[in-house]
Amino acid sequence: MGAVRSSARKNGTRPTLLNGAPARAGAVSPAAKGNGAKLSARILLVEEGRLRKVLSMIESNPSRKINDLALECNLSQSHLQHLFKRHTGLGLGRLLTEHRMQRAADFLAETNMSVKEIACAIGYEHTSSFTRAFERHFRQAPRHYRQGARRLEELTKSRAV
Predict the structure, then answer these.
(1) Cα end-to-end span (Å), the chain
(2) Cα 11 versus chain centre, distance
């Protein structure tokens, strides 16, 4: 049995991370360490066509599951996750979570949607699961995040006057 190789290896090139550095075991790109990089910027930096497609699908519908993405690319879940990690330095699950949490934070700050509606909109079946994930990510409950965002908005408006 032969091992599955990426297109970069077939072409004789080395896989690279998002920052252009060669990929190696355990390497993590700067973009992987923080969630500041926009998904659309990541799409442009990934050379592997299937992974570019995955990133585009995540950007258009962040509530997608890894299984759905793998089926769309005709890959197993584990192979997709392995390819994704090797080419981007990011775990696919972590990227999905970061993207969902950022959208949730935007909804909390910019809309009057309930926490339950936001949880559903970003792909969580249960509000309690969403709340736990949000607290783990932002170290505060969604309700407190919304209150802080509103206070910040009020301060910004009062200083502009």
Answers:
(1) 70
(2) 28
